[in-house]
Design goal:
Blueprint lengths: L1 E4 L4 H11 L2 E4 L1 E4 L5 E4 L8 E5 L6 H17 L4 E6 L18 H12 L2 E5 L16 E5 L2 H11 L3 E5 L5 H11 L2 E4 L1 E6 L2 E5 L10 E9 L3 H12 L4 E9 L5 H7 L2 E6 L7 E3 L2 H5 L5
Parallel strand pairs: 1-2, 1-5, 5-6, 6-7, 7-8, 9-10, 9-13, 13-14, 14-15, 15-16
Antiparallel strand pairs: 3-4, 11-12
Helix pairs in contact: 4-5
The structure holds ribose-5-phosphate (R5P).
Ribose-5-phosphate binds next to strand 13 and helix 6.
Length: 290
């Protein structure tokens, strides 16, 4: 097995290779003057199981083109199998035509990976209306989760926590993490009007007076879901409010906004950021055998 870090996979590819004692190489990626991508492998791929590690954050379209070029090239250079390890995989929230004429991006992106790779493993994919990866991929695809790591982090750092999921989709993380810890949990309801406008509502009365509350979700993007949730939790008397997510996208200064609102934010390192305290390299490393 050869672990190859793509441009947005360096923070984890090296760690995974080190944990497994496997050879690591970085994909050489640069651009032609007209902004076209050029990729090149710096090592021999013949008869190897090549794992391409790419986390699809920032310049997401380039990240996608890069792995497609790399996967096709790896096959041409006689790799035995080409496996995608995606700490963060994009476009999965667009799983239906929410508005007339929109693309269902989830299916299109999954189709591309399906065409060029032999197998894929994805950390906490945002699966909702399609709940299993087999509904999206014909290749072997594994869904990995950081829930045990998040539960361990909460156990170590938060005394007597209550776990809150900000919307119906978050139950896979919030409820599951609460069950692992043996903590109380509540899932709230969210209505999204636009990327920056969400409303979060309580669906039953809960008393949080003096409690340490942890909001658990898969993705924090603009941070508005968490900010709106925290407003409700404060009104209910929460003492400390934490937010723990798998994928810290933290678009448009979201991390600062959360800090200013007194929310202690922590994420895993699927996307590198200042709040990344939970390392997922062990989970990825254990799941690369296809
Ligand atoms: C959506 O259902 C996701 O689980 C997150 O709740 C959402 O992506 C968060 O987005 P934002 O931080 O922009 O409110």
């Amino acid at each position: 097995m050869l672990i190859v870090s793509c441009s947005h996979g360096k923070h984890l590819g090296y760690l995974v290779a080190k944990r497994l004692g496997k050879k690591h190489s970085s994909l050489i990626v640069d651009k032609f003057p007209d902004d076209e991508l050029r990729i090149r492998f710096g090592c021999d791929l013949k008869n190897k199981n090549v794992v391409l590690v790419q986390s699809f954050y920032e310049n997401i379209s380039d990240c996608i083109i890069e792995v497609i070029f790399a996967a096709k090239t790896a096959h041409e250079l006689s790799a035995k199998k080409v496996i995608l390890a995606a700490p963060y995989f994009p476009y999965f929230r667009q799983d239906k035509r929410f508005h007339k004429g929109e693309a269902v991006s989830q299916a299109i992106i999954a189709g591309l990976i399906d065409k060029y790779f032999d197998a894929a493993c994805i950390m906490d994919p945002h699966l909702h209306r399609k709940s299993r990866l087999e509904q999206l991929f014909r290749i072997k695809a594994k869904k990995l989760t950081a829930n045990n790591l998040i539960a361990d982090y909460i156990k170590k750092h938060v005394k007597n926590p209550v776990i809150i999921g900000p919307d119906e989709e978050s139950y896979k993380w919030a409820k599951n993490v609460a069950e692992i810890i043996g903590a109380d949990s509540t899932i709230l309801r969210k209505k999204r009007f636009s990327s920056y406008h969400v409303e979060v509502k309580l669906n039953k009365k809960i008393n949080l007076k003096g409690r340490n509350v942890v909001i658990v979700d898969d993705i924090v993007s603009t941070g508005h879901t968490i900010l709106e949730t925290a407003k409700i939790l404060r009104k209910l008397g929460a003492k400390n409010i934490y937010c723990i997510c798998v994928h810290g996208v933290f678009a448009d200064g979201a991390l600062n906004k959360l800090g200013k609102a007194g929310i202690k934010a922590v994420s895993t390192n699927t996307i590198p950021n200042k709040a990344a305290r939970i390392d997922v390299s062990g989970v990825i490393g254990k799941n690369l055998n296809f």
